[in-house]
Design the sequence.
């Protein structure tokens, strides 16, 4: 019962935070100037649509009209600059596939490598392998993802010619997002996003497993006759995974945030690039639906991280005193 109350409380807080952030973003973006298209044939239709969206009303009234349209009609507004007179929500959904695929591929690549390196470093604690991995981790954690993007471009595209420069050419040619050709073109942005995640997971896994390996129950397991490998596999890894698995969920948010810049560098026609375009082109409604998307994903991930502790380890119950 207490767990249910905790979940409801977190959902309500999530809705409140989403509302606050949405309100701030709406006020800031609507305070910017807007430009009227030059074509006379389009002006009348645009003015009528602007009138329906309340663009000529005070900001608070505009916000009220926006919320009313969202909740009663599912209308998140219209794009005027990126895709002329196309629903903002439709513009966002058309860009979801590349962003989701790049982030999922990055996670699938980062998780096993990061965890395996962390386990190996913990088992080889204070040896040269641990020192090498720990030093490399500190370097990779300190370097932002866009630096990796430039390095990947320089070596794998410019020097070796193994990978294409960007993804947009294949997308414009009508390539399927689930084809081998498209996957090959995504290797570069996936690598650029993965290095930091691998380093973070390696560091966290090593820290948790090192602490677990020196605990009292590990000594007890050894005295019962288990070998070091058996004790590590049956007891240490199982207990170390309790904080590591929620970290994997939170790392998705970090990768999603990093894809803002990566999508710009590799010209990926995804949600991150759309976000930057909507700001530069003053496309109000596209910016708002993009903002709601990113904020909602971040808040939902935080709730999942908290709840995952209780599902992974039944001894942990959120909301208990």
Sequence:
């Amino acid at each position: 019962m207490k767990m249910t109350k905790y979940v409801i409380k977190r959902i309500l807080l999530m809705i409140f935070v989403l509302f606050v952030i949405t309100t701030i973003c709406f006020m800031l973006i609507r305070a910017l100037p807007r430009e009227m298209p030059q074509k006379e044939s389009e002006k009348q239709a645009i003015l009528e649509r602007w009138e329906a969206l309340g663009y000529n009303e005070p900001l608070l009234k505009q916000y009220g009209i926006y919320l009313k349209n969202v909740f009663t009609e599912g209308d998140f507004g219209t794009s005027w600059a990126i895709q002329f007179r196309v629903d903002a929500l439709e513009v966002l959904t058309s860009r979801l596939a590349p962003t989701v695929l790049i982030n999922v591929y990055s996670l699938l690549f980062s998780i096993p490598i990061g965890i395996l390196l962390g386990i190996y470093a913990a088992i080889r604690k204070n040896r040269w392998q641990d020192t090498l991995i720990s030093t490399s981790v500190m370097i990779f954690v300190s370097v932002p993802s866009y630096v990796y993007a430039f390095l990947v471009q320089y070596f794998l595209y410019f020097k070796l010619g193994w990978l294409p420069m960007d993804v947009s050419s294949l997308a414009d040619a009508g390539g399927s997002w689930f084809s081998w050709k498209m996957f090959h073109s995504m290797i570069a942005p996936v690598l650029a996003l993965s290095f930091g995640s691998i380093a973070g997971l390696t560091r966290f896994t090593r820290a948790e497993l090192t602490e677990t390996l020196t605990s009292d129950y590990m000594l007890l397991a050894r005295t019962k006759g288990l070998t070091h490998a058996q004790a590590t596999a049956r007891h240490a890894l199982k207990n170390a995974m309790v904080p590591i698995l929620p970290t994997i969920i939170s790392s998705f948010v970090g990768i999603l945030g990093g894809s803002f810049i990566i999508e710009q560098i590799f010209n990926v026609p995804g949600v991150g690039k759309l976000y930057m375009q909507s700001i530069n082109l003053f496309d109000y409604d596209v910016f708002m639906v993009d903002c709601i998307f990113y904020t909602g994903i971040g808040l939902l991930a935080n709730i999942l991280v908290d709840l995952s502790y209780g599902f992974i380890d039944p001894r942990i119950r959120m909301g208990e005193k």
Notes: The beta strands are 78-79, 86-87. The chain has a mean pLDDT of 78. Residues 228-265 form the longest helix (38 residues).
